[in-house]
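Thought: the user asked what Protein kinase domain-containing protein looks like in 3D. I have the sequence; next I should run the structure tool and report back without guessing.
Action: structure_tool
Action Input:
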Amino acid sequence: MAVKSVPKENAASLLIEYQILEKLRDVPGVVQTFGLETRESEPRSGGGRRTYNLLMELSPRGSLVNLGIPESHVRGYARMILRALSSIHSLGFIHCDIKPDNVLVFPAGNMGGQSESLFELKIADFRLATETWKLGPGSRIFTGTLRYMPPEAAVEGQVSPAMDVWGLGCTVVEMLTGNLPWSRFKEDGEVLREIVAGRTPEIPEWLSAKGKDFLSKCFARDPNHRLHVEMFLKHPFVADYGVIGDRRTKTAAVFGGGGMEMQRSPVAVRPRQLFQSGRAAALMC
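Observation:
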């Protein structure tokens, strides 16, 4: 069992995450919670300290960060994530921070028709998630991890289910290459400049035609032109997925510990801070 602990004064986002996970209980492809507990530390010079502990499923194989997975398997994993997002969106939630670090890897189980050669993926970390009914006309929420954020979210603070689709596209790129999206740029300011300039994350040249088309649709800059999750599930890149032969060994080598050092993906940021600092004007020049 995994435990996420925070002190009482910093527990707001943890409590929100717990409430959302409770509403997503038993949803396939979503990490499950076993409850929330509070603990008081021993009194020291004036009183104890309260800590909130969120109890969740433990992922024995970590997350998808910086792996580099064969395209044949990425297609199956993309379908798993899409199915989970379909359930999340149908229940009125937007994750707002889809990235490999927030997709956990579990041993293969009952995955509803998925190939036995694949591990099971579950979406985690709902601290930044929001409910669609809270998004009124003109609402602006600057939230997420910049490298995985679509233009409308990074620049204008517009949040919609289409934001998760863009994040999925970035996650697919990272699964395929083992590199971060926008990997040629080290600083968030550089990434934001590219986004403002109208560019999109680089799609690998060696990717199949179906894969390139899938990613190009994930990276449609206008969120109204980005396909809905249900439509992506019908895209041939994932809909035609099938494994020839047993590739369990190859997949296990990718996810096995084996001494592989995994770098964590960037943390969630508030792009608005870049604009308030005066850097946005320079980026738009």
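Thought: the tool returned a structure. Summarizing for the user.
Final Answer: Structure for Protein kinase domain-containing protein predicted. The longest strand covers residues 33-40. Confidence is low (pLDDT under 50) at residues 243-253, 256-264, 270-285.
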